[in-house]
Description:
This protein is mainly α.
Amino acid sequence: MIISGKNVQNIAKLYGEQTKVTKAGKTPGSSPVQKQDEVILSSQAQDFAALLQKAQNMTEVRQDRVTELSQRISSGNYQVASKDIAEKLLGR
């Protein structure tokens, strides 16, 4: 694109007309309307926030138990009876 003197003049003219319209549209003594920010969360986000709050309020993790089980799993010494798994799955 080549910018010549004529193009610059046209742009300046349009800019001048635009600022005249903007200034003329304002009424004396009027202040701009200020909008307040608003956040609307979906129901899923609200549910997630509630669950997150519950998780944050839970008692601390028993780190000693986690470490023990991690070591048993890593070494291959962690055994769980299939009957116990089935009962937990069925909710008994």
